[in-house]
């Protein structure tokens, strides 16, 4: 299967070099071919599911809990300004 | 040539806590980044657990919009990179939303089909600023994870007036359900119309989405502008490009915005951290019972059963508190021979503050002020003539400016008429006859 690696990299927000592009293209194709093997499994009579835990309706009551402090919330950030995360200008 | 318009509306719910964590959902005017936790910061290993109330409110809104509620539903991840979305994906709903296939009827009888109503989470807030010499974007994640309901219509509109009416009706329903303040200026309610023009009635090959609309009036203006702009392009035998544009209130036009990502490529997949939701018929019945009588039912009831003017029925049911006050007052009024129409008149025209008066008090006020005015003028005229003739001294006092005698003359006239009438009318008549 042919893969547009540039497009995938853009969606994943990853910068890749020309060499990597080539390497990844064959790797991703191999992975897809491998996954394709699933198509040979006979799934007649098997219900479609996106969850296999058997859990349902796991919800919480609408109650507030304590939060992180501003300092804690920002502690992993590379750059901050006045209690806000700071990033390069976007848009 | 026919305009084809569809609408996406986001409504932020006023739950106490956020959609998937216990942080307070109220972010307006709060210190930045003080309402966050590992879940809404998108930290690794955090487990989102859906807010029961938010989900119920979403379903109730769907029911109020005549939607079908599938018995099972699930959440999905919508993947894209943007600094206001710390996880790199938004938890939303893709192919199994809570509500499907609803409708909303406009006053002209036109029915707008609703494709879906689904639940998702809000993103953080971006502020664009210059710090030092650097142009930067600043992020406040207090809003990250606040419950959002998205209501998507089919492209059933063909003019901006209908869009505005739909939005007003939707806002009214949301407020009746008390699930959001739906204040456009505060961002509780956000709209994104998509607009295209069909040459032959079939669905056009492109559509233009318009953002940055924060009032109903802007929505109307932006849509009208877009229709004009696209017609111009089509006139030259070209096709408008598919894009996202923003409404610029200063320039009074829409301007092209750079698209965030290849918008169609969100790579949705089922949210593995949240098990599916399954309803029983009994639960859904329970939600249905919690829905108050909605405005269009009230208008019909007021018009047909209470026999009040349609225009008044619409105004009385504009907000649920006034409508409920009106109904209580009408009920008490029926025991005192006060008609629903006079209650409506009083409520609408006398600026009654329903939080400062009880329905019973209002009925008393109506009775004490509304029995006059039914007397015909000639009767008043005759009574005043007689009183003035029989009380020459009082008349003289009045003429020389002794205004206290006016009260005496009014009393005499009232006694003559033997009915309670508006003193203003008597004063006018006395003035006329003594000029
Ligand atoms: Zn949180």
How would you explain this protein's 3D organization?
With 91 residues, chain A is mainly alpha-helical. Chain A contains three helices and two strands, in the order αααββ. Chain A has a two-stranded antiparallel sheet with strand order 1-2. In chain A, strand 1 and strand 2 form a beta hairpin. The model of chain A has no long low-confidence stretch (mean pLDDT 91). Chain B has three domains: 2-200 and 259-286, no CATH class; 293-369, no CATH class; 377-434, Arc Repressor Mutant, subunit A (Orthogonal Bundle), CATH 1.10.10. Chain B is 37% helix and 20% strand. Chain B is built from 13 helices and 15 strands. An eight-stranded mixed β-sheet of chain B has the order 5-6-9-1-10-11-12-13. A three-stranded antiparallel β-sheet of chain B has the order 4-3-14, with no helix packed on it. In chain B, strand 7 (125-131) and strand 8 form a beta hairpin. In chain B, helix 6 (310-316) crosses helix 8 (340-349), helix 7 crosses helix 9 and helix 10 crosses helix 12 (405-417). Strand 2 (84-88) of chain A pairs antiparallel with strand 8 of chain B, so a sheet runs across the interface. Zinc ion (ZN) binds next to loops of chain B.
């Amino acid at each position: 299967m042919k893969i547009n690696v540039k497009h995938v990299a853009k969606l994943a927000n990853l910068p890749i070099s020309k060499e990597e592009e080539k390497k990844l293209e064959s790797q991703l194709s191999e992975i897809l071919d491998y996954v394709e093997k699933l198509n040979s499994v006979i799934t007649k009579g098997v219900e479609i599911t996106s969850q296999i835990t058997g859990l349902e309706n796991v919800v919480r009551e609408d109650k507030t809990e304590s939060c992180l402090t501003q300092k804690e919330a920002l502690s992993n950030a590379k750059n901050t300004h006045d209690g806000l995360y700071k990033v390069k200008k976007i848009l | 040539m026919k305009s084809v318009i569809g609408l996406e509306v986001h409504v932020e719910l006023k739950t106490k806590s956020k959609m998937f964590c216990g942080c307070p959902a109220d972010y307006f005017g709060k210190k930045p980044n003080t309402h966050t936790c590992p879940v809404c910061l998108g930290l690794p290993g955090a487990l989102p657990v859906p807010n029961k109330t938010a989900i119920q409110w979403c379903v109730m809104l769907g029911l109020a919009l005549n939607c079908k509620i599938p018995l099972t539903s699930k959440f999905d991840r919508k993947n894209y990179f943007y600094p206001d979305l710390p996880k790199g994906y938004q938890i939303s709903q893709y192919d199994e939303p809570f509500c499907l296939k609803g409708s909303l009827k406009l006053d002209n009888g036109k029915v707008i089909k609703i494709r879906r109503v689904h639940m998702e989470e809000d993103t953080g807030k971006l502020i664009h600023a210059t710090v030092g010499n650097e142009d930067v974007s600043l992020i406040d994640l207090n809003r990250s994870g606040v419950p959002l309901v998205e209501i998507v219509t089919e492209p059933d509109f063909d003019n901006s007036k209908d869009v505005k009416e739909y939005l007003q009706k939707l806002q009214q329903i949301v407020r009746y359900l008390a699930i959001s303040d739906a204040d456009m200026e505060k961002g509780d309610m956000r709209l994104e119309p998509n607009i295209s023009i069909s040459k032959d009635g079939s669905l056009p090959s492109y559509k233009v989405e318009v953002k940055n609309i924060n009032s109903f009036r802007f929505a109307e203006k932006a849509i009208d502008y877009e229709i004009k702009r696209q017609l111009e392009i089509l006139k030259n035998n070209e096709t408008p490009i598919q894009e996202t544009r923003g409404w610029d209130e200063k320039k009074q036009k829409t301007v092209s915005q750079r698209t965030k990502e290849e918008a169609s490529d969100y790579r949705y997949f089922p949210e593995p951290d949240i098990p599916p939701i399954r309803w029983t018929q009994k639960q859904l019945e329970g939600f249905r019972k919690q829905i108050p009588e909605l405005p269009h039912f009230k208008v019909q009831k007021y018009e047909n059963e209470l026999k009040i003017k349609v225009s008044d029925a619409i105004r009385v049911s504009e907000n649920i508190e006034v409508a409920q006050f009106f109904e209580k007052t009408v009920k008490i009024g029926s025991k005192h021979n006060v008609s629903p129409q006079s209650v409506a008149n009083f409520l609408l025209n006398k600026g009654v503050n329903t939080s400062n008066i009880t329905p019973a008090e209002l009925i008393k006020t109506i009775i004490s002020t509304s029995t006059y005015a039914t007397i015909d003028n000639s009767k008043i005229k005759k009574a005043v003539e007689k009183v003035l003739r029989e009380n020459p001294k009082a008349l003289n006092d009045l003429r020389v400016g002794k205004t206290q005698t006016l009260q005496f003359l009014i009393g005499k006239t009232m006694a003559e008429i033997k009915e309670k009438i508006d003193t203003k009318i008597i004063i006018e008549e006395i003035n006329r006859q003594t000029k």
